[in-house]
UniProtKB/TrEMBL annotation, chains A, B:
Keywords: FAD, Fatty acid metabolism, Flavoprotein, Lipid metabolism, Oxidoreductase, Peroxisome. GO terms for biological process: fatty acid beta-oxidation using acyl-CoA oxidase; lipid homeostasis. Pfam families: ACOX, ACOX_C_alpha1, Acyl-CoA_dh_M, Acyl-CoA_dh_N. It comes from Microbacterium barkeri. It is found in: Peroxisome. This is acyl-CoA oxidase. The lineage of its organism: Bacteria, Bacillati, Actinomycetota, Actinomycetes, Micrococcales. InterPro entries: ACOX_C_alpha1, Acyl-CoA_Oxase/DH_mid-dom, Acyl-CoA_Oxase/DH_mid-dom_sf, Acyl-CoA_oxidase, Acyl-CoA_oxidase_C, AcylCo_DH-like_C, AcylCoA_DH/ox_N, AcylCoA_DH/ox_N_sf.
């Protein structure tokens, strides 16, 4: 790894414990850990985007930015980067986890490029691959992979985003001509916010209510050509440009509507539902509800990949802010040693290091998610249960990591002051581009609600065979904990081994197994509490039951979040356990402790109110975090360097060593001035 | 007020208490309250910016945006809006509070216009007015007011932002020619991030170390011409464009540097320090430190006005998101009443209504700040003590309100989903533009540290005349509270009258006086705790003392924040007390309770750990907040309408009634379809 970073001496930040002086992380080894299972594909992608042709240029009009990103997407296609997830018989590499790993790295080049290519190959092309069958693959996949057919993924409508089942677009089968008639019946049913729709798309995978013989078979997906080779809308197709957005302005989002547009019967992507020439509907999945969720589940990769992208973007922001914070000085401490390095301020490390700990946790959790995804989509572990687990896992992790990215990038931007506001230093545009990651590919709160419902359902399964009365008793009683323990909830974590006997982090009754117990306990208790309050729902009217659920919505979302946090903590802990190098293990254990205790501090009131922490132990949490921040401070640069970004990935002038060089220039100026004997003297203080 | 907002029926959100059915706020009366002391000038400004010539246009290049904003600023000048704060003898209106009130409203038109005009008249012009004397006023004020001389405020340098005292630019007096030589000795001393510097500025108020006869008299301000009438840099002056920023791209920020640029002796703005022709320095303020802070204090209006601007921007975001949340529906509740309005979801009101409560608190606190500012700068209450109070107050409120604006705008953006990400709906650009409000005009953390030091100093004054031993005893003892009580800390709040006997909000031991006690207690206890831990500093070496202070930095900043929150709470409470209309008083009391309890919930762990709340009372806080949100939900639209924004101020299509109209169109379509007898039937569920 090329590394231009200067590591200044860090006066005044000696770690508390003596052992900290010795411990150092093995940076390349940690980089390898963070890169995860598909490290080779990540490095391949990083090598490719060192070419400035892939970089974002600030200040382009959204029109110019779109054209640039289209060209970049063509470069990706030419390099085969769009083909990774596709079957080898079409020229692909048939790697699912690896494909997403490589895709995620594009966030370092330009998030617009990431999303543009994600629309093309992860959504539009993926709909053809996952929802279509061989005839569709033969006909379209090669042209999709090569970008000969740029396409839009036309699911969301102006009137329905999260609730896809209620979209208004219809696809009515006409047996006379053996065609589907795609139609937009009212303004709210316009397809909206679609990448590739405003300008570049030549076709779209359109989701619509499939109607045949007077029956609505629910939402299905159709391949619909939308523009001719001159970029002009085909007859019956219309649209609008979404215009300027908060970010991702290199993606041409737009709206589409259809006025009785006819497509051949074969354009129904028919893997999960088909219509015979005479209009008879058939499906391998009898239940309309299960069929719908299976179709949607086939498209889970979008949210899987956002979890990783958000994590790397957080890492990039921290690399920039920590590097700058390690060089920038402001205010004389009054001790005669000159101005203080920002990261030596207690507040500065308190604002950045916990974010770094969370980013590490996410990276490890994400790799486990990718492995799970690869197993399901690669077919080695493709069962109904593992698909459901994958969807729950993605729904639990994507909200946490995308929100974390926004919080982290913003804190980094503020920690860099005015310099952080300059586009050239990347933090502001990174925030703008990633902003929508929290609401697209599944709104974060909607996803957490899915997780919450899964928690409730897993909780309920513990009582299968028991009568309702028993359930009620358990739900409200203390014993619920024990019954719940060991349930299907935790899928990520491996068997837990206590680090306490060897790790140096043992103090104050807040060691690893205490952290795990507290985090696990919270998920269980919160789930049990909500379940207990909801148990009366079956006796209520639908309206009252809905109101009861609504009253518990906030608590359920919080339980889901706690579940995601636990998964991240466990992934981090598992990763630390795999480390053999002593110094690395020591430092990463502190970092894991910072993550775990940070979660406990965030929810400290809950732990106190629920009697899970004594006031004494609780009071120790914050001061322990302060000490951990001080301990980790000398390792901050190593830990961000371990993300493995090269100068071509970082690019921010403030993280280039420029700041350090300027300070040295200023110091040399003052030194020369003093040596010359011509330095102005200070004004005398007035006599009192 | 023109109001196009539809108020749909709100099923399922009946307030808990019966009295809520009757209470309604008197919207125009609340608008009047929120507009505050200078309502007339605010309304005048709002009327002016209903003209689309003042509106932001999305998607302009930063070059085109800058030219548009320059033209808009000229329109302001022509309308006399730039003259309000200036003396009547130069054609001004000599109103200080009113000037800022009008200025703040510009955030509704385009924050770039606000900041461009703020640079011209609030910083550059204000430096001439506040730091200069009559000769400077006579020479330059009219041209500054008319925008004939656009100017930059050249204080910050690349190497020094928060620490102005350490800037590197020098102004060395040459008695031979009776000139100052302005010089930039190294790259870190380039002036940076200056509005008007990249393109439009013809002059700058340059802050530099004043050196005469070999003595450095510290930072002073000089009027320095920088460009000729053709916009070309004058000899010795150079600069660079800061380029694209995270927002405010209608302001041409840039860098300036000076190579031995000579200006006449008279160009020193000499109100607080002068140099005679022979080079003899004199100042009405003998202490260099006090002189420096007096000069900087003369420029406090920037941060005062940001407090108000951030508050109105938060109000605008909430107006958009609440209006949309009151119309947008998503997901059928399963009760047969159709899709649920977003704001009927418990999570949705929990994410928006507490932000609304805080915005109200800020509006009331801000008006008190403006009154204070007007008293000091208008001369009716201009003492050293009131100046110091004003600076502390501004330093306490500006961080809270600017951070709140970012949090609020972001939450509103997310609450509007994909629509919220479209620039036309304003939330994203509002966030981008206001982002830098948290770090400019005083970095928020640096300001809070000032407040914290003031708290410590006020705390220390309680012990004047007592020996160190007694101080130590007090600092750690329980009695510290009592001694501290009634200290100079609280300046905003009036004598408190318990609302408990009349207000309906009395429940659970969390009524108004409990809130006040808890909030006050926290400031006192945290300050006393930090003071107690710092009391040993005098016995330590400078390095150890600095380290001890550093260890307490996070806690001190937290105490400062608590102080600001208390001030806001008291201002809100004072405002509620002035209300005579029963319904208005009732609803605003709930809103104030939501604000107060929200603060207590945020710091609940602290209250539990410090024994200030029993677990029973603490457990009641969150559920009480949930009930308050449910109670306030039917008033949400009224409360955002009371900000008094007209359609020309809101402009977001999603808040225009468009959403409601689309839903009605869809509903009519489905109703007609059902009536026609041709509606497709639902697929039959498979037999089990």
């Amino acid at each position: 790894m090329v590394d231009t970073v200067v590591r200044p001496a860090q006066p005044g930040s000696r770690p508390v414990a003596a052992e900290a002086d010795d411990a150092r992380i093995d940076i390349p080894a940690v980089t390898r850990m963070l890169l995860g299972t598909w490290a080779d594909i990540r490095l391949e992608a990083r090598e490719m985007i060192k070419d400035s042709a892939f970089w974002r240029i600030d200040g382009l009009s959204h029109h110019a930015h779109r054209e640039r990103v289209l060209e970049q997407t063509q470069l990706l296609a030419d390099a085969g980067a769009g083909a990774r997830a596709y079957p080898t018989e079409y020229g692909g590499r048939n790697t699912n986890g690896g494909n997403l790993a490589g895709f995620e790295e594009l966030v370092l080049a330009d998030p617009s490029l990431q999303i543009k290519s994600g629309v093309q190959w992860g959504l539009f092309g993926s709909a053809v691959l996952q929802l279509g069958t061989k005839k569709h693959h033969d006909r379209w996949l090669r042209d999709i992979m090569s970008l000969k057919i740029p396409g839009a993924f036309a699911m969301t409508e102006s009137g329905h985003g999260s609730d896809v089942q209620s979209i208004g677009t219809t696809a009515t089968y006409d047996p006379e001509t053996e065609e589907f008639v795609i139609h937009t019946p009212f303004r709210g049913a316009w397809k909206d916010y679609l990448g590739n729709a405003a300008v570049h798309g030549k076709a779209a995978t359109v989701f619509a209510q499939l109607i045949s013989k007077g029956v609505n078979y629910g939402v299905h997906c159709f391949f619909v050509p939308i523009r001719d080779d001159n970029g002009v809308f085909l007859p019956g197709v219309g649209g609008e440009d979404d215009g300027v957005k908060g970010g991702l302005n290199g993606v041409d989002n737009g709206r589409l509507h259809f006025d009785h547009v006819r497509v051949p019967r074969e354009n129904l992507l028919n893997r999960y539902g088909d219509v015979a020439p005479d209009g008879t509907y058939s499906s391998p999945i009898a239940s309309p509800g299960r069929r719908f969720f299976t179709m949607l589940g086939a498209l889970v990769q979008g949210r899987v990949s956002l979890d990783g992208s958000a994590t790397w973007a957080s890492g990039l922001a921290l690399k920039i802010a920590v590097t700058y914070g390690n060089q920038r000085r402001q205010f004389d401490s009054g001790t005669g040693t000159g101005e203080t390095v920002l990261l030596d301020y207690a507040k500065h490390r308190r604002r950045l290091l916990p974010l770094l700990a969370t980013t590490y946790a996410q990276a490890f959790a994400h790799d486990e998610l990718l492995v799970k995804f690869d197993g399901v989509f690669g077919g080695t572990a493709d069962t109904d249960e593992s698909r459901e687990d994958l969807e729950t896992l993605a729904a639990a992790l994507k909200p946490l990591s995308t929100w974390h990215a926004l919080a982290t990038i913003q804190e980094c931007r503020e920690a860099c002051g005015g310099a952080g506001y300059m586009a050239e230093n990347r933090l502001v545009t990174l925030h703008q581009d990633l902003d929508v990651y929290v609401t697209f590919e599944g709104d974060n709160n909607v996803l957490l609600q899915l997780v919450g419902k899964r928690l409730l359902s897993d909780y309920g399964k513990q009582f299968t065979g028991k009568d309702a009365r028993a359930l009620a008793a358990y739900a409200v009683g203390e014993t619920a904990d024990k019954i719940f323990h060991g349930a299907g909830l935790r899928r990520l974590g491996q068997a837990f081994a206590d680090l306490g006997s060897t790790a140096r982090s043992v103090e104050l009754g807040l060691r690893a197994h205490d952290q795990q117990e507290l985090l696990t306990d919270r998920v269980q208790r919160m789930t049990a509490d909500v379940a207990g309050r909801l148990r009366l729902a079956s006796r209520l009217s639908p309206a009252q039951a809905a109101e009861l659920f609504n009253e518990n919505q906030v608590a359920l979302l919080e339980a889901a979040r706690a579940h995601g946090e636990l998964l991240q903590w466990e992934a981090f802990t598992d990763a630390v356990e795999r480390v053999e190098d002593e110094g690395t293990r020591q430092v990463l254990t502190w970092l894991r402790d910072l993550f775990g205790l940070g979660l406990i501090e965030k929810h400290l009131a809950w732990y106190l109110l629920n009697g899970r922490l004594s006031t004494q132990r609780a009071a120790a949490v914050s001061s322990y975090i302060d000490r951990l921040c001080a301990r980790l401070r000398p390792h901050a640069q190593d830990l961000v360097d371990a993300f493995g970004f090269e100068p071509e990935h970082v690019r921010a002038p403030i993280a280039s060593g420029q700041e350090q060089a300027r300070q040295e220039e200023a110091a040399a100026y003052y030194a020369a001035l003093r040596a010359s004997g011509e330095a102005p003297v200070k004004e005398k203080k007035p006599a009192r």
